[in-house]
Every structure is written in C-alpha cells, then in structure tokens.
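Minutes, project huddle
Topic: does the predicted pose make sense with CU-O-CU linkage bound?
PN asked that the exact inputs be recorded in the minutes so nobody has to dig through chat later. Recorded below.
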Amino acid sequence: CSTRFYDFKVQSMRITKLCNTRNIVTVNRIFPGPVIYAQEDDRIIVKITNETPYNTTIHWHGIRQRLSCWFDGPSYITQCPIQAGQSFTYEFTMVQQKGTFFWHAHVSWLRATVYGAFVVYPKTGVPFPFKDPYEEHIIILGEYWNQDVVELELNTTASGGSPPVADAYTINGHPGPNYNCSNNDVYKIDVVPGKTYLLRLINAGLNSENFFAIANHKLTIVEADAEYTKPFTTDRVMLGPGQTINVLVTADQPIEKYSMAMGPYSSAKGAAFQNILAIAHFQYSGAVTNSVFLPAQLPRVGDNLAVKTVMDGLRSLNKVNVPKEIDTNLFITIGLNVQRCHSKTPKQNCQGLNNGVMAASMNNISFIKPRISLLEAYYRKINGSFTDDFPGVPIEYYDFVNGAPNNIPNNTQSLNGTRVMVLEYGTRVQLILQDTGTVTTENHPIHLHGFSFYVVGYGSGNYDPQTANFNLVDPPYMNTIGVPVGGWTAIRFVSDNPGVWFMHCHLDVHQSWGLGTAFIVKNGKGNLETLPHPPADLPRC
Ligand code: C2O
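Predicted holo structure (tokens), as shared on screen:
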C-alpha cells in the first residue's frame, strides 16, 4: 500500500448560481471539492490550510479512524477548529476499508459547500464482487443556499423556530433546468448503449433526506456506506445525509436523453421542503441532444413504504461478524422537543412551537458542545467540560409515538448537557434508537463516528422486545442509519477503537438543536489498543 498526500486549501470562491452571485467556502476553489482517491490499507495525509475567516475542520465520513481518533474531525469532539490562517494535517490509514466515502466540514453548517467524494478501491488485484463497470461516476446530492450558511445556522438556533429550506437541491453542485437561471447549470453523464456504469451516490445535503432515480432505468445496489451488499434491484433509492450507496445501471433503453432526479423524502408531517427537483442528464451517445428527455419518477414526499423497501433490500454480501451476545444494551430516544421559554430567554428565541425554543435530544438530553474538545479534556484529564453520566434510558419516559403536537405535556422538555457515555474496551454494545413524537415524528439519519455497526432490526411504533425481529445473518454494516419515522432501529457494534466518538443526527439542524451524544471508549490492554498521543499541530481553542 502507499501513502497519498493531498493539499486542501479552504478558501472563499465567487460563484453564480440561481441568478445570484456570492462567496461560498470551498476547498481549492472547486465545487464540489476535490476527490480523494486511494486503495484499501493506504495511508492518507491531508494538509488543511484555512484561508477563510471561519473556523473549520474536516471529517472523513465513514472512515473508522482505527487508533487515530485525533484525526476524526468533528469540532469540539475530537479537536478544536482550525482557525483563520492556521493549518492542521490529518493522517490516517484506510484499515480494511474501501468503497465510497466523502469528506465534509464538521463545524457550523459549513459542510453545505465544503464537501467532496472520497473513493477507495480494493487492493491491487482484488476485483469488485460484480462485473467491472465500463465507467464509474460520482453523484453527490446536495443543498444550495443563497445565504451565508454560518449566519443561517446562528439564525436558526437563535430564532428557535423551524429549519430554513434550501434554495435548491443539487447534483454535483448543479441545480438543473427546473431552477431559475439554471438551464445550463446541469450535470450530465454521457453513456454508451449497452454498457454498465457504476454510480457512487453520496448525500451531502444539510437537512434533507433524498430520493434518487433515473428515468426508465433500474438501479442495482451493490454497496451501502462503503460495504458490499447483496445485489438488489430497485427503481429508486433514498439516502439520508451522510449515507453513500453504489449502484450499477445499464444503458439498456432506447437511445434517448433521460433525466436523473433528486428530491426530498421529508418524513416529518408539515415540514417545509424545496418543492422542485434537481435534474441531471443521462444521455446516450447518438441521442438527439435537444430531444425531450423522459422525466424520472420519484416517490411522493413522505413515502415511508418506498424508504422501507430500499432498507429491506440492504443485506451484507460478505460473511458478517455480528455480536450474538450483548454486554451493554442502551435504549436511546431521539427526537425533537420544545424547551419552554422563561423570563431569561430572549424574546426572539421563542419562535418554536407554543412559543418555546426548538430543541432536539437523545434520552431527553440536548447535547451542548463543550469549549475545548471532549477528546482533549479526556486525554489531559481536564475537569469541567463534560460529565460521564449520559443516561442509558430516557430520563423521562412517555408514550413515544403518540405525542400530541398541539397539546404538549410537561415532559417534552429536554435538559441541556454535555453528558457522554463511557464504554470499556471491547464492549459488545446494542443501541435501540427510538424515534419520539412530542413535536413531530421524523426519520432521523443517525451517524456514529469511529465504527460501522450492524443494523440488526428496525420497525414501526414503539420498540417491543417481545415482537421485534432481528437479523443476525446478513444485516447491513453501516455508519449512518435512518431510524424509521415513529419507529425504532437496533444496531450492534464492539467498542474496540479507543477514543471519543460522536453520535448524532446527520440533519444539521437537529445537530445544532442538540440531537447527539458521544461515547468515550477506554483503552484496551495491549499497545495496539490504546489511544495514541495527540499530534503536535493539533489546533488550540
Ligand atoms: Cu458526516 Cu459527524 O458526520
């Protein structure tokens, strides 16, 4: 294996989109940012230089950072942000990992424009478990905002009200012809009739889970979250932010120009969303370029069945190593709630439901980011920035899925806190993630740093151990999982990677409202099982 060096300059770039010219933050003035290419087991070294006035960090989404926790990237979890004018070099190894990943900023809402693909091939001589595609393409789903996204986050948290809706959905940064001034701002793939293509789909959106489809063409899923799956053929896929899915598509239709479409799933009742689809083109060579192309059909907004169908189709291809026995079983509610305003809350913050402040929580704790990183506080034994008493069950127990939006009981409030859970090295953990419904139920894409986990079960309604069905034979091995709206998901992993690992909703607005927590995984016994020392250039807060 080899070492791959990349030089990332985080910079402002002038861009014109949707009839609007403004500055966005990107890497190396490319949007979407540069692609990292590597092979399994390679060493990756990326020097980040921050040439913007904003704080930044980069997270390598889905890369497990085996014994390299310091380079994981979430701000105030494993590091302080890289401040204006400073730099930091991330160094890690792709230990037994390959497939489609992506990198993104992990501070404020900067990842709205600071993202790019991260493609890792199998080792030399190791084939894909399917026939080599004729060509491959990266397809990144995104959301574009005319406003400064750092301000947008501040306004959203300060106003305490509903999340703002993106100005456009995008495919590889292009909104496509449905949007104003975007007739030529269209991403296009040229295909040769009869050939099979590998599409690496990534949802880099901020706040929207999205469907994707190509008119008249079947998609065969072969990989999800950078792990091979049994081939599963479908008309469309759904990706939560943070998820990646590889599909094969064969150009086996009449020679034409077809549309590829991306649009919202939007599982929460009454939630606002961008009501226009992002369109890209899938164009056969020989097609008349101005011929009317066939529009792609997406499921309707809120189509839970379409989402379940995709989920049911995800099965690990390779032999799995699911923990059969469990040492620690945690029940974690996830959901939106309202914190009541009191005399000290500024008036403008009370624009949530029933004049409260919108909040989100796990087990009714809204996660507040500390002032120095959790990892540094833990490593240097600095007191006062977190407590290790994250509750293993909800601090108040209510009927999860039957919350009444207009008649909020007293227990819809969450407590603020920076409360983490400590795991001994090698603990076999099961998490039951239960969506709650005190404000509205919603599908939440929950992401765990530092691990992949087996998705052993999921269902609608309240989790009931008597009736829950578990798959220990071929469950998918994921890093981000959409917990069904008003339902539950069970995941399992072994805590064999020392460090501090964030777990949060990958809808950024929910993360800002506190939907997260962190695990501290203690050292094991051998040298190979202990947290390394921090790098010399680790940013200071
Ligand atoms: Cu892709 Cu904590 O994030």
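Observations noted during the meeting:
- The radius of gyration is 22 Å.
- The first helix runs from residue 149 to 159.
No decisions taken; revisit at the next huddle.
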